[in-house]
Automatic annotation (TrEMBL):
This is DNA-binding transcriptional LysR family regulator. Pfam families: HTH_1 (PF00126), LysR_substrate (PF03466). Belongs to the LysR transcriptional regulatory family. It comes from the Bacteria. GO terms for molecular function: DNA-binding transcription factor activity; transcription cis-regulatory region binding. Keywords: DNA-binding, Transcription, Transcription regulation. It comes from Actinomadura viridis. PANTHER family: HTH-TYPE TRANSCRIPTIONAL REGULATOR, HTH-TYPE TRANSCRIPTIONAL REGULATOR CYSL. Residues 1-58 form the HTH lysR-type domain.
Length: 290
């Protein structure tokens, strides 16, 4: 049950295709098939089944894939911790961030950190809230930049930065805003901002029409085009507000205070702490208390 076999199985689980898994891993298709067959033999249960032109996981395979991802994540985390313990400035750092944080908060931080500590190996994965917290839980990220971590998560909040959520719309839409009838432009399910918007509307006991768009940029562009109002971070719409393409809507109970959080697992690596130290030197960031 080698690391290589686990990586092959996870690649197959992710892609649903022997060909795509082989392409991802730069190996032959026969090597993928042989590796997964050997892993299933070691476990004594079938892990995959044929589904049309691809493959799917058996119930046992679905369960085992979650553990395999955690094992691989822990191995990567262990390597990062060992490298960081020897020299934090030459370790590795796996970041994960929600879209708005990646677009609006991280670029300057990463540029400054790269100039300050050029020897650190950096990777960044961007996705909706559910995805980035899943990466932390599976030990696939050393540090997450997002909203508040989910209840019960094995997570350590290391730093915070203010973040204000506002309702915005094109000037003509904002002028006629009515909570129960004005359309809302929303992110896809799994987005933290989407969940906050839905909770806000439920609290108002209204169910206005909504249009789902698949990215933060599309939501902002849709609101500016007059498709409806949107709940967004003020950080994400500074240019649109300054240009008058969007205005802040005078919506009840707004704005909302939803700070950014820099969150690690329960045992942050030395290189993670080095980055957090850099982050705390940036405007607005403060060390988490309690």
């Amino acid at each position: 049950m080698t690391e290589a076999r686990l990586r092959t199985f996870v690649a197959l689980a992710d892609t649903g295709s022997v060909r795509e898994a082989a392409r991802r891993l730069y190996v032959t298709e026969s090597a993928v098939s042989a590796s997964v067959t050997a892993l299933a033999r070691d476990l004594g249960v079938p892990l995959i089944r044929r589904m049309g032109r691809g493959v799917g996981l058996t119930p046992a395979g679905t369960v085992y894939a979650a553990y395999a991802r955690q094992v691989l994540g822990l191995l990567e985390q262990g390597r990062a911790a060992a490298l960081g313990a020897a020299d934090p400035a030459r370790g590795t750092l796996r970041l994960a961030a929600v879209t708005t944080a990646a677009d609006q908060v991280l670029p300057e931080l990463l540029a400054g950190f790269r100039a300050r500590v050029p020897g650190v190996g950096l990777t960044l994965e961007v996705g909706p809230s559910r995805e980035v917290w899943g990466r932390l839980a599976a030990h696939e990220a050393d540090l997450v930049l997002a909203g508040r971590p989910p209840a019960g998560a094995a997570a350590t909040v290391l730093a915070r930065r203010p973040n204000e959520l506002v309702v915005v719309g094109a000037p003509e839409v904002a002028a006629a805003f009515a909570p129960a009838s004005t359309p809302w432009v929303m992110r896809e399910p799994g987005s933290g901002t989407r969940a906050t918007a839905e909770a806000y509307l439920a609290e108002l006991e209204v169910a206005p029409p909504s249009l789902v768009l698949g990215s933060n940029g599309a939501v902002i562009a849709g609101a500016a085009a007059g498709l409806g109002v949107a709940l967004v971070s003020r950080d994400a719409v500074g240019a649109e507000l300054a240009a008058g393409r969007l205005v802040v809507v005078d919506a009840p109970g707004m704005p909302l205070d939803r700070p950014w959080h820099a969150v690690s697992g329960t045992d942050p690596t030395p290189t993670t702490l080095l980055f957090v130290g850099h982050l705390l030197d940036a405007p607005g960031w403060t060390e988490a208390q309690g």
